[in-house]
Specification:
Radius of gyration: 25 Å
Shape: elongated
Number of strands: 14
Structural class: alpha+beta
Number of domains: 3
Largest sheet: 6 strands, antiparallel
Helix content: 25-40%
Order of helices and strands: EEEEEEEEEEHEEHEHEHHH
Distance between the termini: 43 Å
Strand order of the largest sheet: 1-2-8-7-4-3
Strand content: 15-25%
CATH topology of the largest domain: GMP Synthetase, Chain A, domain 3
Number of helices: 6
Length: about 290
């Protein structure tokens, strides 16, 4: 943490002696203190001596406690275990402190390119899944089914009451980490485009039929874009019927990867020459989402 020097805690290095969320015990040069909510404050010789505010150096009193904004608990060995940032932790309806990191870590949804757990003012846990709009109803239905399977093994306080499917990319840091605060602000402002889980078809077979037609139309649009034509038949062959060449075929693969947020299509595109075959591939018949 920025308030302390490079070394503030000592952690047992022996195999099997380290708790998953433990950061260790404070070194002699620093003191830790938890408030009633688990908020961590620190002080000591290795802490900062001053801070700059508005371009002005403001000295810190030597014995003053510094609030870190992090929430911890201690385990039976006296090690400090981090629960998360104070402004990220979710307060459950029964007063539980739920870590969004723990919720996100327990949710494994292959069809989603991003996952974000958020808490509401009433303790309601919301899960936001980033599933590209171009993915269609089928992949959204599969994502919902996968998420619900994950929920069954979680404590009730960690089970989301609301599931949203973002139609657009979630905001991220330069390092690729989903920005919870930014997503929370977008939701409050009504600026995040999403679909509610209750609007996602529960019947996978019906969702496949709906999703296939939706995906097929999007693929046909990719063909038209690359070939510069107004319309193509679902079973038109890119090379034989549409007079496409290798350069434009690779342009088609790039456009499909971009439109559907896929990777590696070029390596697996053997025999994919019609809009229908691409749509079936994208939806998982012989493709990466089977």
């Amino acid at each position: 943490m920025t308030e302390i020097g490079i070394a503030a805690v000592a952690l047992d290095r022996r195999p099997g002696r380290r708790a998953p969320a433990a950061v260790g015990r404070p070194l002699p040069s620093v003191e830790f203190q938890l408030d009633a909510e688990g908020g961590l404050s620190v002080r000591g010789e290795s802490c900062m001596s001053a801070m700059y505010m508005g371009g002005r150096r403001v000295p810190r009193e030597a014995d003053a406690w510094i609030g870190t904004g992090d929430v911890f608990q201690t385990n039976a060995r006296g090690e400090y275990e981090i629960l998360g940032r104070a402004d990220d932790l979710i307060s459950g309806a029964a007063g539980e402190r739920v870590s969004p990191d723990a919720v996100e870590g327990a949710i494994s949804v292959e069809q989603a390119t991003g996952v974000c757990a958020l808490g509401g003012p009433d303790g309601e846990l919301t899960l936001v899944l980033e599933v590209p709009a171009e993915a269609g109803a089928y992949r959204r239905a599969l994502a919902l089914e996968s998420a619900q399977r994950c929920f069954s093994g979680l404590p009730f306080c960690m089970r989301p009451k609301r599931i949203l499917f973002s139609r657009e990319a979630l905001p991220r840091t330069p390092g690729g980490k989903v920005m919870r605060a930014a997503i929370r602000n977008l939701l409050r402002a009504g600026a995040l485009k999403f679909d509610e889980a209750r609007d996602i078809p529960g019947d996978i077979a019906q969702a496949y039929r709906d999703g296939f037609l939706e995906t097929l139309e999007a693929v046909r649009a990719c063909f038209c874009e690359v070939l510069g034509v107004a319309s193509v038949d679902p079973d038109s062959n890119f090379l034989w019927d549409l007079s496409g060449d290798s350069m434009r075929y690779f342009a088609l693969l790039s456009e499909i990867e971009r439109r559907f947020s896929l990777k590696g299509v070029a390596k697996e595109a053997n025999g994919l020459l019609t809009p229908r075959s691409f749509a079936e591939y994208i939806l998982g018949i012989g493709g990466p989402f089977a």
